Structure formats: C-alpha cells, structure tokens
Amino acid sequence: MMTATQPLRGALLLLPALLVAGVAGGAPSLEFHHRFSARVRRWADARGHELPGGWPAPGGAAYVAALAGHDRHRALSAAGGGGRPPLTFSEGNATLKVSNLGFLHYALVTVGTPGHTFMVALDTGSDLFWLPCQCDGCTPPPSSAASAPASFYIPSLSSTSQSVPCNSDFCGLRKECSTTSSCPYKMVYVSADTSSSGFLVEDVLYLSTEDTRPQFLKAQIMFGCGEVQTGSFLDAAAPNGLFGLGVDMISVPSILAQKGLTSNSFSMCFGRDGIGRISFGDQGSTDQEETPLDINQKHPTYAITITGIVVGNNIMDLEVSTIFDTGTSFTYLADPAYTYITDGVSKFSVLVWSCFNRGIFML
C-alpha cells in the first residue's frame, strides 16, 4: 500500500526542472533549482508538501549528509545499482574543522569490542592510523586551552584486539622487533619534533555503507597503539589520535581495498562552514573535472603539478610539484613561486579545491 508521502519523494526529485518556466526574448527558458533550495522549499510549503524526515538546515551536517546521500543514490541508479556502495564511519560521514585544535579536520571513529569512539584528525600527508594508548604525558595536559578530553585505546579491554607480529608485512621496524614482542612503530612528522611511537595492533573498525539501506560492518584493520607522542601532539593537534589516509599499504583506505571491501579510492569534501564528509570507495562522478596525481613511488604522497601562476595580468609559466596535506593548516610555497607572488602583490589569497578523491582532484 502506497502512503501519501511516497509519491512526494519522486515529485521533489523533479521539482528542480519544473519549478519555473517562462519565455525570454521569444525563446523558451527554464530555471533550475536544487531540491533542497529555499525556492523549492517555499514552493512545497505553499502546497502543504513535506519532505520525509524534514528539511535539512543549509550548511549543517544533516544538509551535507542529505546532499551526499542523494548524489550517492543517483550515482548508484545511473550504474544500474550494480556498483559496490562506498563506506564511511559508523558514526557518520561528517567531518568537522576544529579551530582550537590546529584548524585540522576531524571525524568520529569507533574501534574495538566493545566499541570505543575517538575524535581523530584526518591526515592525507601520512599513512598510519594511531590512537593514544593508556600512557602518561602522551596527550595535551587538561589545563591546555586547546586540549580535548583524553580518550585512550586499551588493548586489554577489547576482546578483538591482537598484537601485530614481527613477521607481518606491515611491520616496518623488524630490526627493532624481537620474536616475543609486538611490532613497534615510529612516525615522524614535518612539524618540528612531532612524532608518535608505540606498537602495532589489529582490531575492528566499525563502518557503514552509504546507500538507501545502510548496513554496518566490522573491518579488521591495523593501527598504532601510541605510547609516546611529542611536539604538536602535546599542544593542539590530534589529542585523540590521527587517521592517516596516505597512499602506502598501511593506511586504512589501502587496507580496505586489499580486503576487497571498497575500491582503492576515497573522497573528502570540505564546506565553507568547516563541515564536510568522507567516503571510502567513492569513485567520483563521470562528469567531474580531473587533475592527475603525481605519485613518487619512493616517497608516495598525493601530489599535483602546478603549471602556472597568475598575479593580476602577469603569467608565470613554471612547473611546481605540490603536496595535498589535510594535516597541514597553511599553504607553503618554495622559490621561485614564493618570490614571484610576494613581489607581485602585498596580499593574496589561495583558492582550495573543495573535494579530494584518491587518484584525482575533483575541481
């Protein structure tokens, strides 16, 4: 039996193409409006129509999720529904920029059995996902104005936690690993004296499919149990851990692809209000513009080549390789590009692409 709200859902999908029609200069014309736009909402409200679940507030997390959900449904429909739906965190795909935590982008992740939730920084400039273990002096002090409530991962409290042995393919410090110990790790970051070290563990990460009927699943992944943090991690960055999204095999996107759970891709979108989304296995749309990534096999990072810089009416032809790093708050330029820009203007702004997809930039 069809309810009264069911035909409305289909009608709202058609509203952007049917809302306003007219004639301009003797030729037919048509205005297009987004299905969640104020114009469409006023049209629906005037006729007593309601969107199932309510109208999402523009710019909020629910608004971003609704847009992503609609786009995902449209992409799956266009593919005949046969594609594997992307995955995101079980707590939701929303990401949030936190100004007093270094202006980095954060997401909520749940690991272990029973599940424990952490707010982790998202970093495309590194590979390893690590969480602070129960340790002294490895998180910002409670008195710090930029600190967040400490949250520790304790392997002994998770029934699905297990250590990573020295002979594992993920163990990069085998020379420092004895046959009776867990594989150690140490990550050193670009920021001065910033590092994380500890040992590697395996445990479950809770994920959800992004489609009309979400399904929850547990993925066995590897990550770092951080016993010692230094530098920025004791100040403002990643108080509850860091989620490496890099190219290497130890990153979570790579692990999910190796297990056949998603395609070897992911996307991140950032909104002007600091709220965005993240999806694993997102292949992008067929009509998007693309910029290829320059992958250095010895030191794999997400890098693009800038082929020119324009200041006013002056054009400088050059090729500069730049790294896309969500774990860095500022844009850095080296010479000759830096001198060219600073000599040309006293103030300048840098436009940042709003979406990132592993393998391509989405312009």
Task: Please give a quick description of this structure.
The chain contains five helices and 19 strands.
Walkthrough of the structure:
It is globular and about 60 Å long. Strand 13 and strand 14 form a beta hairpin. It has 363 residues and is an alpha+beta fold. The strands form four sheets. The chain has a nine-stranded mixed beta sheet with strand order 12-6-5-4-14-13-18-19-15. The chain has three domains: 1-22 and 29-55, no CATH class; 87-280, Cathepsin D, subunit A, domain 1 (Beta Barrel); 290-362, no CATH class. It contains five helices and 19 strands.
Strand content: 25-35%
Give the overall form. globular
- CATH fold naming of the largest domain: Cathepsin D, subunit A, domain 1
Oligomer: single chain
Work out the helicity level: 10-25%
Report the sheet with the most strands, covering strand number, pairing sense and barrel closure: 9 strands, mixed
Counting helices, strands and paired strands, the structural category is alpha+beta
Low-confidence runs of at least 5 consecutive residues: 1-30, 72-82, 347-354, 359-363
Rg (CA only): 23 Å
- Order of strands in the sheet with most strands: 12-6-5-4-14-13-18-19-15
Specify the CATH architecture of the largest domain: Beta Barrel
Q: In CATH's first tier, which class of the largest domain applies?
A: Mainly Beta
The termini sit apart by 44 Å
Number of domains: 3
DSSP helical segment count: 5
Give the full name of the CATH homologous superfamily of the largest domain. Answer: Acid Proteases
How many beta-strand elements? 19
Chain-averaged pLDDT: 75
Secondary-structure element pattern, one letter each: HEEHHEEEEEEEEEEHEEEEEHEE
